[in-house]
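S.,

Sequence below, as promised.
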Amino acid sequence: MSRPLMTAPELAEALDGHRPPRLLDCRARLGDPDAGHTLWWEAHLPGSVHLDLDRDLAGPPGRGGRHPLPAREAFTATLQRLGITPELPVVVYDDMGGQLAAARAWWMLACWAGHPDVRLLDGGIKAWMGAGGEVVEGDRAAPRPATGGRPIATIGGARRPGCRRRACCWWMLAAASDSAARSSPSTRWRGISPARCVAPVPTT
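The prediction came back faster than expected:
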């Protein structure tokens, strides 16, 4: 079981190792759906790909809220498109100290989908640059789509840090969604009033 956080020096060492992680840039700005990709295009960690809050980490807004969880099939397709497999370590980051989309991506990968080795870059891209890490601009070669291997949704695994249920159980969605619903006013998670909540929400 891996620790949920990874420091910038640890990431630099991992990228030079025999099994470098897949980097997912999760930067986003609520209210501006295109901002995250623009930020990624302007400067990102070498080899990273952008994981979009609205398109990849959420389903269509509506009765389920502004950022409901995507369908399992849709998220699985996203992971395959990004070349993510259970055998490939993953590191997610943003520029909000992991408090926005990167934290959601970590939860979705580690707790919801059951990926066995996903970490959150402590301090995000700012910490990486502060430690002297390189950033690049523009688009680079896209990762090869994942084929074969074990689907993430069927992995058996140990408990994840911060997760009360075993990983890889898609049925834990209901419990997580109910918890999010109880912690927020109904007008907020139903998408009726302006909100800054991106937590998983129920559909009814």
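The chain is about 30% helix and 10% strand.

Coffee later?
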